[in-house]
Amino acid sequence: MTLGIKAVSKNFGGIHALQKASLDIKKGSITAIIGPNGSGKSTLFHVISNIIKKDGGKIEFEGKDISELADFSIARTGVARTFQEVRLFKNLTIKDHLAIAISVDDECLLKNAISKPDIDEAKIKEALRLVNLDKPLNTYATDLSYGQRKLLDLAVALAKPHSLLMLDEPVAGVNPRLRKEIKAILRTLKKKGETILLIEHDMNFVMDLADDVYVLDEGRVIAQGKPKVIQKNKKVLDAYLGE
Amino acid sequence: MIENYILHILILMSIYSIFAVSYNVALGYAGLLNLGHVAFFGLGAYTSALLTKAGVPFVVAFICAGVIAAVFGYLLVYLTRELKGDYLVLATLGFSFVFTSLMLNWRWLTRGPLGLPGIAKPNIFGLVIKGNLMYFIFVLIIAAICLYIMWRIVSSPFGRLLEATRDDELGLRVLGKNTFNLKAKAMTVSAFFAGLAGSLFAHYISYIDPGTFYIMEIILILSIVIIGGVASFKGSIVGTIILILLPELLRFLSISSSILGPLRQMLYAVVLLGLLMYRPRGIFGRVDLE
């Protein structure tokens, strides 16, 4: 098991965003979290990264309790993630983005001021090749289309040293062609042995992609299992599809 | 006479270029809108003046000016670490008021509103920097060194992280970067060089009082950075040249000195407004000030 989420709760005033949600993410698998709007999917991601403090429960990553770590420390343990809205550095280039993701010693002021460490161009090119983003490295993030920004966002998460990749709605707002492309990228990543935790609003997108699916509704895990089983689960159909 | 006047302008440009670029490190690169920067300049000036008056060699006092300002720079970031946006701006403005108030009321040390007169010219291992030409060469060398170090910092991978902090702090934290440390380092560096500029200023002018480091000075330095361009190194230098030269033109008009001061402030305001309307990124800027 790579990530263990045990009875995690989060309340916003009177709203129960997460109610004792428990999930196990297996190494080398794609696990999808699905659920209707407001079911707590993104809150769960924020709680795992400790961007939002949980009210109760425990989160273990590779056997270590990461519940009390700061958000940047959790990232350093090997958790890479994207957000529902693309978060890029608008005044930086593609190369800058990937160099930041790859570097581990760029926070040292003296070392950087005295000698300029080399950027590993091969790693940058590999990250871009994986997501099929073919743009000049000196292109600014603001000069990219929405789809290209989505791909750069994914490339940045991939370039960051990690053992778990958390993707929050990677195909939200993209055209059908890019949607297929991203699905193919995720399949390639799975073949490479990546552990991926994926939030997706659209159930069909994950059905032939994920190994395991968790369904959230009103902050609770209402179902868990293989996609084919989930598709036929009555509770899921009632809560998620409103049927 | 005219030579001395030109040298005086060049000396001020050199000192203010350090001051302005140091401000740009925090404001332009790290995105810290700090209205207390003038307090670091003042801290450097007072530290250096008081230490040399107490018999401490200039070189030691000069370094202490930077270090003391840097310590307060770190403290300011630490104390305001939970604040963002307008609240941070107000807190930093408050810091500059606290500094002015302390310098006004800590009379046994600073002589309060009477200020500190007779600040000695720099004595570097027996070589006294006297006369405007010598002082200009001295500050030009110091400015070149300071600007080179700051340029190395902002153009390094560390500088790239500062820019990323300015653009999206949360996005950077989830990449495993400690943005509090980055901001603290940026402010410490910024305050250090502002302190050095303050020391150079005090030993050149030879008299300082709390009014020298009041709010008007931050408007000048903010105008320099905005006019030159936020996050532009050369912009801060060009901005310094423009805003030091512009008010000097007023001297050639036959206006009484009581009108000259306010007119200078009005000139800064007109230039700033005009630029914000027609060229919001400044002359060399590539980043919007948000």
Mean pLDDT of chain A: 91
Structural class of chain A: alpha/beta
Taking the sheet with the most strands of chain A, its summary is:
6 strands, mixed
The structural domain count of chain B equals 1
The side-by-side strand order for the widest beta sheet of chain B comes to 1-2
Order of H and E elements of chain A? EEEHEEHEHHHHEHEHEEHH
| Integer average pLDDT of chain B | 93
Write down the CATH class of chain A.
Alpha Beta
Q: Regions of chain B with pLDDT < 50 over 5+ consecutive residues?
A: none
Largest interface: A-B, 35 and 31 residues
Q: Which residues of chain A form runs of ≥5 with pLDDT under 50?
A: none
Shape of chain A: globular
Explained architecture:
Chain A has 243 residues and is α/β, with parallel strands linked by helices. Chain A has one domain: P-loop containing nucleotide triphosphate hydrolases (Rossmann fold, 3-Layer(aba) Sandwich), CATH 3.40.50. Helices cover 36% and strands 24% of the residues of chain A. The longest helix of chain A is centred in the last third of the chain and has 16 residues. The model of chain A has no long low-confidence stretch (mean pLDDT 91). Chain B has one domain. Chain B is built from 12 helices and 2 strands. Chain B has a two-stranded antiparallel sheet. In chain B, 48% of the residues are buried. Chains A and B meet through helix 2, helix 3 and helix 4 of A and helix 6, helix 7, helix 8 and helix 9 of B.
Search tags:
heterodimer; A: 243 residues; alpha/beta; Rossmann fold; six-stranded mixed sheet; four-stranded antiparallel sheet; 10 helices; 10 strands; 36% helix; globular; B: 290 residues; mainly alpha; two-stranded antiparallel ribbon
